[in-house]
Design goal:
Shape: elongated
Helix content: under 10%
Number of helices: 2
Order of helices and strands: HEEEEEHEEEEEEEEEEEEEEEEEEEE
Oligomer: single chain
CATH architecture of the largest domain: Sandwich
Distance between the termini: 76 Å
CATH topology of the largest domain: Jelly Rolls
Number of strands: 25
Radius of gyration: 24 Å
CATH class of the largest domain: Mainly Beta
Number of domains: 2
Length: 324
Amino acid sequence: MKNRKNILKIGSVLLLATILITSTVSVANTRDSTTLASDVETKEIWLGYPTEPQNTNAETWLYYDDGSKETSVGTSYPPLFIAIRLTPMELATYDGYRFVKTSWYQVVTNTSISNHTYDAKIWEGNATEPITLLVNDTNLTADGEGWKEHTLSTPVIIDGTKDYWIVIKCYAYDTTHYYDLPMAWDTNATSNKPQKSKWYHHSHDHPETDFEELPLNGAWLLRVAVGEPIEITINGGFGVSAIITNTGPTTLTDIPWSFTLNGSLIFFGQTKSGTIETLAAGESITVRDFLIIGLGKTGIAVKAGDAEEEASGFILLVFVVGVT
């Protein structure tokens, strides 16, 4: 029995070693009969389900991939643009909500290029191309392999009747290095959504909106987070108050809220928090922090759900004035 276990262990190690060795060979996608464009390179690297940071967050994540990265993709003409397109079919439920984050999986195929620089973009568009740029967050850095998450500089209020393009631009494939395939690809046939899950292009002789579908079946490991449709208006007076409005189409429940004041001369009441049990569509509620004692300038940050608003004001004992 002991010898049998040892043989099984040795066999498992040899099998794993074989997989690792053969996975270093560049392939033109062994699972599809389509021919890749000459500037696209792929590599079979791993089959499995990585830990997904999205699972631990409060936001709702929209995506087409199944969480596994079977293939990595790069281009000989940097930078590489990848995109997924969301349509009214996916977004009708989230009309009035907000895009708040993007997430993508960075692959390290060349250990000498473990860091990449990215841009995160959201466009409004149509069935074949992005048209109006809504968010353009540049010079994002990613270190090592795994899921990379970015909070958008400007949340986008979703119109559930329109198409949106979620785009990541990767400055990859340094001319002094080779075999850099940083973007993860899911080859699951059920993830393959024509005109939605697999848009790409490179910058070589292409305008930025000139996308085409990658000739592989599957989806990019690229996701966007939808945040609650909450607006916050901060007011002063006796203490601080905030009007929290549900701008979405459905009732929200169990919304945590908090105040944080950062003035240097606040003697009491720097923070306060609570929970709104229900907030119907279109309804507003005012939350307050009366117990503030201080003097001088202060910043004011109010959070409600995953929404946040900031303002500044002047504390005069128990009053907060000049809030802007």
